[in-house]
Design a protein that fits this description.
Length: about 375
C-alpha cells in the first residue's frame, strides 16, 4: 500500500517493498520543456546534467567516482513536461542516497568547471540527435501539435544549441530558484525500510531549507494543443523512404476512468505482426515493413501517435488505408483472438514488474 504525505511542504510518496534489499529514490519535477521560453530552450536539459553532479560531497571528483564503490545506479531525465533525478542501490546505503537526492534538489552546488563540462556533453548529445534524419520531423510535430512555447521547442536541437552557448552559471541558478520549488517537486521512495524511519530522515533533511517560492505555475490544460487539422510536409532530399507521423491529441489523463484502456487500444492498432496496421499494410498489401502506435500522457493530456515508413510511391496508398482501418475499427469489433493476445501479453508484462524498477516507479 502506498503512503502519501506532505513533509515540510514537500510531497512524499512511499512505495513499500517488504523483504526487498533494494531502495530507489526518485524526485520528479513539474517542468521539463513545458516551462521554458524560446530564449531558454534546452536549459532544463543542461540542468539535468549539471544538477546530477551538484553535490558538495562529490568534492573535486565527479559524483560518478564518489558512488563507484557503493555499486549504485543513478541517472536523470528531461521530458516534455517533467525532470527526474533518481538513484538506486542496496538499502544499507539508504541514508547516503536520500541525502544525495534531497541535497541536489534543494541545495545544488554549482561550479563553473562542472557547467563547462556538461555544456560540452550536451552539445555532443544534441549534435548526435541531429545526425538522425528524423529530427526535423520530430521538431515539426512539436511545432504544429503544441501551443505552449516551451513544448514547441522541445525537439528543436538547432535552437537549443544556439541557446546552450549563451547560458551562464547565473542563468542556471536563477532557473532553479524559479522552478525547483516545493510545489513542483514529488519525492518517491521505493524500499523495504520502515515508513517511520523514512519520514524521520526526510523531515530532518528538508527542514529549514531556504527555498524561494516566488512563482506559482498554472497548467492550462485546454491551451496545450493547437487542435487544428494539419498536413505538414518536411522535405528530406537524402531519405530513401517517406516517414509518416499521425498525431491525435486527446484530453485524457492518468486519473480518467477509461485511461487504463489506452495502451491496450494502441497495442491492437499498431506494433507486432498481429496488430491491425501491420497485418493489413504489411502482410496483406505489402506496403510497409512495420507500423507502430503508442501514446504519451502528461498534465496536458494524451497524444496517440501512429508512425509508419514506406516507399515514396506508396505514401498516398498507406495514408488512405491507415485512416480506413482506423475508421473501420472505430465501429467494428476486433476478433476474440486479438483481444485474448493483448490480455495475456498484459498479464505477462505485469507478472514481471518489480517496484524497484525505475520506469515502473515513474509510471506509478
Amino acid at each position: 500500500m502506498c503512503i502519501r504525505d506532505r513533509i515540510n511542504g514537500y510531497s512524499l510518496l512511499i512505495l513499500p517493498t517488504p523483504g526487498k534489499n533494494v531502495t530507489l529514490i526518485d524526485c520528479q519535477l513539474l517542468g521539463g520543456f513545458y516551462l521554458e521560453k524560446k530564449h531558454q530552450a534546452g536549459i532544463s536539459h543542461l540542468l539535468e546534467h549539471v544538477v546530477s553532479f551538484a553535490w558538495k560531497k562529490c568534492g573535486v571528483e565527479s559524483c560518478t567516482a564518489y558512488w563507484e564503490k557503493y555499486g549504485v545506479e543513478s541517472n536523470a531525465h528531461t521530458s516534455i513536461s517533467t525532470n527526474s533525478y533518481w538513484i538506486k542501490g542496496l538499502s544499507e546505503f539508504f541514508d547516503k542516497m536520500l541525502k544525495y537526492v534531497v541535497d541536489i534538489m534543494l541545495r545544488p552546488h554549482f561550479t563553473q568547471q562542472r557547467i563547462d563540462k556538461e555544456k560540452t556533453a550536451v552539445e555532443n548529445e544534441l549534435n548526435s540527435y541531429m545526425n538522425d534524419p528524423s529530427w526535423k520531423l520530430n521538431d515539426a510535430v512539436c511545432k504544429h501539435l503544441f501551443s505552449v512555447e516551451g513544448m514547441q521547442y522541445a525537439n528543436d536541437e538547432k535552437t537549443q544549441l544556439k541557446v546552450l552557448k549563451t547560458l551562464t552559471k547565473k542563468d542556471l541558478i536563477q532557473y532553479c530558484l524559479n522552478f525547483y520549488t516545493k510545489k513542483n517537486m514529488l519525492f518517491i521512495i521505493s524500499t523495504g525500510i520502515s515508513k517511520n524511519k523514512i519520514i524521520s530522515k526526510f523531515k530532518r533533511l528538508t527542514n529549514n531549507v531556504h527555498n524561494y517560492e516566488k512563482r506559482k505555475h498554472h497548467v492550462v490544460k485546454s491551451l496545450c494543443f493547437q487542435n487544428e487539422k494539419k498536413i505538414v510536409f518536411v522535405k528530406n532530399t537524402t531519405a530513401e523512404n517517406t516517414d509518416i507521423e499521425i498525431c491525435f491529441p486527446l484530453y485524457m489523463y492518468f486519473d480518467d476512468e477509461d485511461f487504463v484502456y489506452l495502451d491496450t487500444i494502441t497495442d491492437i492498432v499498431g506494433g507486432d505482426l498481429s496488430s491491425l496496421l501491420v497485418e493489413i499494410l504489411r502482410e496483406k498489401l505489402q506496403l510497409v515493413y512495420g507500423a507502430s502506435c503508442y501514446a504519451t500522457t502528461n498534465m496536458c493530456g494524451s497524444v496517440v501517435y501512429i508512425s509508419i515508413s514506406t516507399l515514396d510511391k506508396n505514401v498516398a496508398k498507406v495514408i488512405k488505408k491507415t485512416f480506413e482501418i482506423c475508421k473501420k475499427y472505430s465501429r467494428k469489433l476486433i476478433s476474440t483472438n486479438k483481444l485474448l493476445r493483448i490480455k495475456r501479453e498484459h498479464k505477462l508484462e505485469v507478472s514481471q514488474y518489480y517496484l524497484k524498477d525505475v520506469d515502473l516507479i515513474r509510471d506509478f
